[in-house]
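Reviewers asked in the last cycle whether our approach scales beyond single polypeptides. To address this, we selected a multi-component target totalling 225 residues and predicted its structure end to end. The input consisted of the following lines:
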Amino acid sequence: GAVVSQHPSRVICKSGTSVKIECRSLDFQATTMFWYRQFPKQSLMLMATSNEGSKATYEQGVEKDKFLINHASLTLSTLTVTSAHPEDSSFYICSARPTGGDGYTFGSGTRLTVV
Amino acid sequence: RKEVEQDPGPFNVPEGATVAFNCTYSNSASQSFFWYRQDCRKEPKLLMSVYSSGNEDGRFTAQLNRASQYISLLIRDSKLSDSATYLCVVFEAGSYQLTFGKGTKLSVIP
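The resulting structure, written as structure tokens, was:
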């Protein structure tokens, strides 16, 4: 079945630094990938839709200059949390939808802790 | 604003019990519906799709009522391994986006 690899699974960083999270589809091409954030005891909230070769579409309230998304190939999307603050600490998950296909596959998530 | 509302839970049930989860969605144009399962600190995994005619997969039965914008999940003969958070998820065809409910936590007790 379709597999999405997400790295790192866990990261601790200092306030003010930047963190890059990678989401890679291993055995399929994904024109569109999605980035979610999940705070404790909350549901997954869509942050942005990442489209290969074009600018990402951000949900209302998500700062595009803070959460930089790059989808340079059909198998890789990256999310960079810039100038991270403790309130950015969360569980970030990507999902990918096969080009021309159905279904969504989720990455294993990245737990970010900003200290 | 697109909303997906679920029973708040938590549900604590003994092994062997039958438990039902409910979910309502606000966007009448929603196209597809799913139940996902999420274990603690893990990514969500698809449990089953929900079809208008209702569908069953082993001990799990899902129902959809489009007129009432209501989805349900029934788990029969609960197992300890069923303990997880169950997420009601709605798919918006135009945007290819998934909207998640907050989830209902189930604990199956020996």
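The interface with chain B takes residues 32, 34, 36, 41-46, 49, 91, 93, 95, 97, 103-104, 106-109, 111 of chain A (CB under 8 Å). We regard this as preliminary and will revisit it once experimental data from Aim 1 are available.
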